[in-house]
Design a protein that fits this description.
single chain; Gamma-B Crystallin, domain 1
């Protein structure tokens, strides 16, 4: 191969790679996204209702601000559950508070609402050691027990429509 031909081929390949590099998003844009923290306060399920009514929802870039708003909206708010966007308790967070105290045998039914396509892990508190997750199809159900689930499983990941939480002991 002559020097002139090799130079032309090398320049051609380099130009192609530069063009492809322009198609990838800059790394700084992905790293600059900030997690959102939401706090939701719900009531126990009332007769005739299928899910607990939401009394308030507050979101912020700061978790403490969102939590303060939840307790300000209800002096009796008891933390029931935290939903995490990613497995391993990472990403955006939604803290769910019960306006009627901790879980008991009847518990709460929590509509995942705006978080329904972004729950990958969760933690529960205040006697909510039984959890029933119903997927967005309204039929498929998964049961979890204990207080921490680092990953909901492939089928339930980003696909939970609502949770029932109760005191299973």
């Amino acid at each position: 191969m002559h020097l002139r031909t090799r130079t032309a081929v090398t320049l051609s390949v380099a130009a192609s790679l530069v063009g492809l590099a322009g198609l990838t998003p800059p790394a700084a844009a992905a790293a600059s996204s900030k997690d959102t923290y939401c706090s939701v306060v719900v009531e126990r399920v009332k007769p005739g209702d299928k899910v607990s009514r939401m009394k308030s929802r507050t979101c912020s870039d700061d978790r403490a601000t969102a939590a303060t708003a939840a307790t300000r909206n209800s002096s009796a708010a008891t933390k029931l559950m935290t939903w995490y966007q990613h497995a391993g308790y990472d990403g955006a967070i939604t803290d769910v508070y019960g306006d009627d105290g901790p879980c008991d045998a009847s518990g709460y039914v929590l509509d995942a609402g705006m978080s329904r396509y972004m729950i990958s892990s969760f933690e529960t508190y205040n006697s909510c050691d039984g959890q029933q997750a119903v997927l967005n199809d309204g039929q498929t159900t998964f049961y979890y027990y204990g207080y921490a689930t680092p990953y909901v499983g492939d089928r339930a990941n980003d696909n939970i429509g609502y949770f029932k939480v109760w005191d299973a002991l």
